[in-house]
Records
---
Amino acid sequence: MSELKIFLGPPGAGKGTQAKKVALEFGLAHISTGDMLRDHISNKTDLGKIAKSVMDEGKLVSDDLVIAMLVERLGSNDCKKGAILDGFPRTLPQAKSLEEIKNKFPVSKVFVFEVDEEELVQRILLRGQTSGRSDDTEESIKVRFEIYSQDTEPLIDFYNQQDKVVKINAVGDIDEIYHNIAKHFN
Ligand code: AMP
């Protein structure tokens, strides 16, 4: 059994930064669906071509495509010890797709990153100056927040009902935040 830990939170909450650190420390795979999609775009794959404009607008790539990409990724050897999902699931159908594979890949915990929106916009705009990400613009950020509260936030309830949610105060010192997350790993 390869346990999955989910990092859930609005854009700019620091999920990627923390997921990288935790994955390295605990020997887990770090799966960022956003990074995977950006790789598809750089490699000009069919999926990349479909995803590009949707991502630039700040909207979500269709569930079917993202679920297929994720499930295929979980088949890799490096996921045998478990994985951190960074940016997946983002919708209820995506969360339900994980229920279907829970015998092999059970979700053990869901870390919910909490940061207020004003701080997030500043962080993302700052990141946009160096990330080269074409979706780190004010217009796209607005859409990404709307989608987060409409499609992704309801997942907190979904996982609360399963008693899996760990809330993380994601403002402040990166190492302190890391320790607050890492103490839930063994
Ligand atoms: P991220 O790097 O996680 O902020 O994701 C960047 C963009 O990739 C998102 O705004 C979406 O357009 C797309 N994306 C990433 N993960 C997903 C997902 N699980 N479902 C749908 N779209 C996604």
Note: The chain has one domain: 4-182.
---
Amino acid sequence: MRKNIVAGNWKMNKTLQEGVALATELKEKLASAKPNCDVIIGTPFIHLATVSELLEGSIIKVSAENCADKESGAYTGEVSAAMVKSTGAEYCIIGHSERRSYYGETFEILKEKVLLALKNGLKPIFCIGEKKEERESGKQNDVVKAQLEGSLFNLSAEEFSNIVLAYEPVWAIGTGLTATSDQAEDMHAYIRSLIAGKYGNEVAENTTILYGGSCNPKNAAELFSKPDVDGGLIGGASLKADDFKAIIDAFN
Ligand code: PEP
């Protein structure tokens, strides 16, 4: 059966020292109360090696927030999937809406990133979701379908089984507006039906689909109670150990 996961996305927050302090606090909190779900923290590149070492032996896994769409070479400032893997990180967030909108990441670019992440033994946490105007005009299903088809449905079933999906309606990210649990469930069930159509029921049932968008300690339990919502990708609330832990505890 698929895993329940709570994953943090620190985005461009925390100096190295602040990140180490947050990871240490979280490690201590989770050591005394074993969670009922897998826990991942997504950190900026500069934290990955230090935080991975710090969390060795703990239940918390580490994710990058991005990787390059090229293997290696003259791409100043980029960080390859192989480099991410060499830090000890096991996951890589790919296709976050901030990367799509601020850095022009297209379906094709994201397809390359996913292939390179998989090739280097990283599990992609692949983000999909519609913008406000797309939901208002009832296009959310078409948008999400195109995102899946454009960057993931080239994968074999075996490759796809390493993907974690995160449905993140763009209008809910960092806005305090959360999708209702029914809106999240409708979309997650639809996503699962698309996976079933492409790869069959077994792959679909085994795919973890996270919800992301202003998830917090107050709304997490309601969202996670839905059958197709397998946890959350958490931005703002992952920056405070108590809030992140409270979201993890929603699975208790
Ligand atoms: C995110 O950026 O992935 C996210 C879900 O952010 P927030 O929880 O702050 O809305």
Note: The radius of gyration is 17 Å.
